[in-house]
UniProtKB/TrEMBL annotation:
This is Enoyl reductase (ER) domain-containing protein. InterPro entries: ADH-like_C, ADH-like_N, ER, GroES-like_sf, NAD(P)-bd_dom_sf, Zn-ADH-like_protein. It comes from the Eukaryota. Residues 139-151 have a biased composition (Acidic residues). It comes from Laodelphax striatellus. One of its GO terms (cellular component) is mitochondrion. The lineage of its organism: Eukaryota, Metazoa, Ecdysozoa, Arthropoda, Hexapoda. Residues 129-138 have a biased composition (Basic and acidic residues). Pfam families: ADH_N, ADH_zinc_N. Residues 114-153 are annotated as: Disordered. One of its GO terms (molecular function) is oxidoreductase activity.
Length: 405
């Protein structure tokens, strides 16, 4: 099935996405939600007290909600490369010690402190006459609820959140700004939800909005730990039907990339890597590069782009920033080098930021995309989870869960 996702403003799409995600939310809270009990004034959290030291599980006191914030009972939280960099003290946005890492969470609303929604102005609906003289509503006269952008979050709502400002996801509870919270349908499990929003929204931002990929395009995607590269392959191959070359560390991972939709997969260790990409592209070069690794992989990928192609820089899982001389850039075909950041869109183009995650949720609801959850750990195993991220060949998402089961 061919699917095209527009990231431009489109009222009918937005309404469709919101209807899909509001399933069951207009009825009374179900048994699970009614049984939801407020936690005590303290909760368990994984606290980093010193750089490059193990996180410590301890009781943390609740903080009072500020206006525009919600408290979430965390069910699952992704362990991302950015969390690891913060724990190592080398993140570009480094919080002060002590702090609780983790920003990509799923769970249920425990408490809200939201401003009252603005009162709606009542407008008289216009009527049109039919041939028999009877009155009928305008074609665009939908139910009032369909015109709502979002009705207020309520206790018990199932949600995902991208808490980059407050972090604190490696815990039983966290406080998040409401602008970083999205409802999720009951069909979406918490572990899957925690591994969905960040990587897939960034992949959509880079590939769709910035690179404008098409089914006719050849796209080179580099993959490392953390799940971003795999999400990009899922989006490029299964949403936009582009021809994807996946670049990875081992042949075992290459097989996984092909299962996800890659047309071809090559390893970093292959001799004549640039020549191999040239052969696969018919010596034309690739239309788009989606780069997530950094270091020498970035340089190789950059040399593979076609004339007037685009190189999307989305991450550096290797934790090594490439060093490319200006003189080298001038010897390559003319191409565009584009950095992408969800954090930037959150600050400068908020509507796009919100819509990207809505699009991801809708695509998952339609069974078009699906994140790979490589391994789950309990909150008490947080240090094992961080070690797993650095010492294995994992390219899917690693998830912390707070369930007692």
């Amino acid at each position: 099935m061919s699917v095209t996702v527009s990231l431009m403003s489109n009222v009918s799409r937005v309404v469709f996405a919101q209807k899909t995600l509001k399933i069951g939310l207009k009825t009374a809270l179900n048994a699970e939600n009614s049984a939801l009990v407020r936690h005590a004034s303290t909760y368990k959290a994984a606290v980093l007290k010193a750089i490059n030291e193990p996180l410590v599980i301890e009781d943390v006191k609740q903080v009072k909600l500020k206006k525009g914030q919600v408290r979430i009972k965390v069910e699952a939280c992704a362990v991302n490369v950015s969390d690891l960099l913060m724990c190592q003290g080398v993140s570009s946005v480094q919080p002060s010690l002590p702090f609780v890492p983790g920003f990509e969470v799923s769970g249920q609303i425990l408490e809200t402190n939201l401003p009252a929604p603005p009162a709606k102005e009542k407008t008289k609906k216009t009527k049109k006459e039919t041939k028999d003289g009877k009155k009928k509503k305008d074609d665009d006269d939908d139910d009032d609820d369909d015109d709502d952008d979002e009705f207020p979050l309520q206790n018990g709502d199932r949600v995902i959140a991208l808490s980059r400002d407050n972090l604190s996801g490696f815990a039983e509870e966290c406080v998040v700004d409401v602008k970083d919270v999205w409802r999720i349908p009951s069909s979406l499990g918490f572990s899957t939800a925690a591994g969905l929003a960040d990587a897939y929204a960034l992949a959509l931002l880079g590939l769709a909005r910035r690179a404008s990929i098409k089914a006719s395009h050849l796209v080179l995607i580099t993959t490392g730990v953390g799940g971003l590269g795999l999400a990009a392959i899922d989006v490029a191959a299964n949403v936009y039907k582009a021809k994807v070359i996946g670049m990875c560390k081992t042949e075992k991972i290459g097989e996984l990339l092909r299962q996800k939709g890659a047309w071809s997969a090559i390893t970093f260790a292959e001799n004549g890597l640039k020549k191999k990409v040239a052969e696969l592209s018919g010596k034309h070069g690739v239309d788009t590069v989606f780069e997530t690794v950094g270091d020498e992989v970035f340089t190789t990928a950059m040399h593979s782009v076609a004339h007037e192609g685009k190189v999307i820089v989305a991450g550096f899982a290797s934790q090594k920033i490439p060093d490319v001389p200006m003189s080298e850039l001038l010897t390559l075909p003319s191409f565009s080098l584009i950095g992408v950041s969800l954090r930037d869109y959150r600050e400068t183009n908020y509507n796009v930021y919100r819509q990207l995650v809505y699009d991801v949720l809708t695509l998952h609801e339609q069974d078009i995309i699906k994140p790979l959850i490589s391994k789950e750990f309990k909150l008490e195993q947080v240090n094992e989870a961080l070690t797993h991220l650095t010492e294995t060949e994992t390219i899917g998402k690693i998830i912390l869960t707070t369930s007692k089961n």
